[in-house]
Design goal:
Radius of gyration: 26 Å
Number of strands: 20
Bound molecules: ligand ME8
């Protein structure tokens, strides 16, 4: 199967922070999981470089917009390998291929009689790059702001409009027939009731600044940044060349976005696509919002979390694990140093690390480091293998629905069962009474360790590889095929090393 996954493309108005890292890592986890399933994966991320917000940031830095975005996009590009993410393409909306693709999409909409010229008069938030109705705003200190506190300004200009209102019923039909195309369920309900509330035609061009993709045949207008931005998902796989191999293989995509930009992805984007005669996305998953020690993350509060700082302090896999274990994917989460330390210590050091460490060092000390496949399985062995089967099934089910936290929990439950098995089978006692049985126990539990490391590989790839190295296990042999069968070969163990050092709590 082919699988196409995308992050939002991030605005190049500032440097990346932990929120951007979060979405990119989420997509990396889902991409790696799909590769383990044997799927052919295309993972896209990039930067959103046009619009008034970026232009204003460039002016504030005394740089020309293009010079400014060339400089800022590098920060997003460099962050990807630091996050341990393996992408297939990085798109910048100022690239020629993208300008061409978004103009083609525009022309297609025009050809299908979906665009008309009129005048826009209303509220606009540069921070959100969004138009607002007065009833969506509140007044603070006599000034209108959006629900999330963004300032708005009154805009009056000639503008092209997209006939969004024509798509209301078709969108409702589509979502009612495809209830899993927006997840989590609460977000699906929100989108559906927003659409049912009525859709107005959407202003899709601006004339009061010019940092954007020129509207074909009317260079007085630049495209509204969102129509340009959303089109990136098509550009990267070759649009407008719909015979392109990547386009044929990978569209439609699974989009992972923050809840802040769900409306653009789940209302405007599918309407543009339907209007242009293009298939709708396979799924849109909207995740929640991170706060820092209970407070909104914002530059003005001075509490922005730099992904470099936090990863340098705790370790890459530790942070990847924390972000996706701590909070159900889809819910809001709070970043706190105490929570990070507790998670790493409880789940990685005490549960998984402890199992790996005690089994590998015991086997090296007492069994010449080689474990042969067990021949006679006891009820207790079979019971643990059944748990492996159940937990693996759960894990796949959860991963397929992007419930990453629940998938991780299933693996941790398997590891806990492995620890209980070791405690009850007590290989240290068997060493004196029944060496053959001792070896069988070590072999069975080593299987559990290897399988758990593979299941956690999408989340903690470096640590999983280290663990598999201790057991000389080459993951390339295993793409979840026959996953719950015991490994039918000798397992050699060397160089046990602690993988997850405990974090000292202050
Ligand atoms: O919206 N918690 O770009 P953007 C969780 N260019 N996720 C967060 C976060 C937080 N505190 N802060 C940011 C844009 N994010 C547009 C997108 S797509 C065609 C165009 C993540 O730079 C989250 O994924 O404002 C959110 O949706 C995204 O960054 C917004 O990034």
């Amino acid at each position: 199967m082919n699988f196409y996954i995308t992050t939002p493309i991030y605005y190049t108005n500032d440097i990346p922070h932990i929120g951007h890292a979060y979405t990119t890592i989420a997509c990396d986890i889902i991409a790696r999981y799909n590769k383990l399933l044997g799927n052919n994966v295309f993972f896209l991320t990039g930067t959103d470089e046009h619009g008034q917000k970026v232009e204003k940031a460039a002016i504030n830095s005394n740089l020309k917009p293009k010079e400014f975005v060339d400089k800022l996009s590098v920060n997003f590009i460099n962050l990807i390998p630091f996050l341990g993410c393996e992408i297939d393409d990085f798109i910048r909306t100022t690239e020629e291929r993208h300008i061409k693709a978004s103009q083609e999409l525009w022309k297609q909409l025009e050809k299908n009689n979906q665009i008309y010229l009129s005048n826009y008069e209303g509220w606009y938030s540069v921070r959100d790059e969004a138009f607002y109705l007065e009833n969506e705003l509140k007044k603070i200190d006599g000034k209108y702001v959006t629900d999330n506190g963004s300032p708005v300004e009154w805009v009056k200009e000639e503008s092209y409009f997209f006939k969004l209102s024509e798509w209301q019923d078709k969108l409702i039909d589509f979502y009612e027939n495809n209830p899993e195309s927006i997840l989590p369920k609460t977000r699906y309900n929100e989108v559906l009731s927003f659409i049912k509330g009525g859709l107005k035609d959407l202003s899709i061009s601006r004339t009061t600044f010019n940092w954007g993709v020129p509207v074909p045949n009317n260079s007085k207008h630049v495209m509204y940044v969102w129509i340009d931005a959303l089109c990136n998902y098509l550009t990267a796989i070759g649009y407008p060349d719909t015979n392109n191999n990547n386009y044929k293989k990978f569209w439609p995509a699974t989009h992972i976005v923050g809840k802040d930009i769900l409306r653009f992805h789940a209302v405007y984007w599918p309407a543009f696509l339907m209007a242009a005669g293009i298939e709708l996305p396979k799924r849109i998953f909207a995740h929640g919002w991170w706060t820092n020690e209970g407070k909104k993350i914002s530059k003005s509060l001075g509490n922005v979390i730099d992904p470099y700082d936090i990863i340098n302090e705790y370790g890459l896999d530790q942070i990847r694990f924390f972000l996706f274990r701590e909070v159900p994917f889809g819910n809001d989460g709070d970043f706190s140093k105490k929570a990070i330390a507790n998670r790493i210590n409880a789940d990685l050091s005490n549960n998984f690390g402890n199992l790996v460490q005690r089994i590998s060092s015991f086997a090296v000390k007492n069994n010449d480091s080689i474990l042969k496949p067990a021949e006679n399985l006891t009820n207790e062995d079979q019971n643990l293998i059944n748990i492996l089967q159940n937990k693996f099934d759960e894990y796949c089910k959860f991963m397929n629905d992007q419930q990453i936290d629940r998938a991780i929990k299933s693996v941790l439950e398997l590891i806990s069962a492995g620890n209980v098995y070791v405690d009850t089978q007590a290989p240290w006692t068997l060493k004196k009474t029944n060496k053959i049985r001792m070896e069988e126990v070590l072999y069975i539990v080593t299987n559990i360790i290897i399988k758990s490391a593979i299941m956690l590989y999408p989340i903690i790839p470096t640590s999983s590889k280290k663990i598999l190295n201790i057991f000389n296990y080459n993951m390339d042999n295993n793409k979840f095929e026959n996953f719950t069968k015991l490994i039918n070969q000798n397992i050699k163990i060397d160089n046990p090393e602690p993988i997850f050092p405990r974090i000292l709590n202050d």
